[in-house]
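Justification of computing resources. Each target in the renewal requires a structure prediction run like the one illustrated here; the chain below, 257 residues long, is used simply to show the kind of job we budget for.
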Amino acid sequence: MKTRYTSLFVTLFVMVFMYLPIVMLVTQSFNSSRYGGKWNGFSLKWYEALFNDTSVVNAAVNTLIIAAVATAVSTVIGTCAAWVLHLYKKSKLQSAHYLLVFIPLGVPDILMGISLLLMFVSLGMNLGLLTVILAHITFCIGFVTFTVLARLQDFDFNIIHAAQDLGAGWGRIVWKILIPLLGPGIAAGAMMAFTLSMDDFVVTFFVGGPGSTTLPVKVYSMMKHGPPAIINALSVIFMALTFTAAIAGQFFTHKKY
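Resulting structure tokens:
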């Protein structure tokens, strides 16, 4: 009985510690006071001011474009990489291949940002939207590969052999078998890549250039120069998008067919 109450207390403490700041952030975004600290009444003026700020809108558009392109490309490459790594896992070279794919998962963001910046500069590339997209694809591929590989652990290759015995070509096998069965894993990897791309600040800060400002970079700038209340409203919208993507990813990960 004592252990049960202790576990309940620790759980409640952790949940309050984690979610109370989020609740306060959401509450303050509807506070008519500019700097918070005191409730001056319910208001939506900060959301109105946010949507009337063209710089924020442009940053949001850049963020969505970068996240969409990086998610699409990293999902295709990551899925193909996971398939090959699983199919030829007995090869001696696969250890090196695994290392190449998963190194970005363990490299600190600041180190990856500096490395990519040096590479782009040495190649003579102008920093902008393209370099940010390439950087996001680089660190998203490993997460997609890891997620799809987990799905492949339970995949029965006898289904493919049976389809080939019945005369099915690889086009039909991919469309009728692989995509439906691996779909939850692929979707979960895509959702994870989208969330990581939307949230990234450090790598984007290093490889970004004129016209490629994203929402995380914009928030950092507004923390120094903009009204805090607008940042609260922006954070609530940004948080809602990332939470939705993360929840969808978890749903597809645990979905069974």
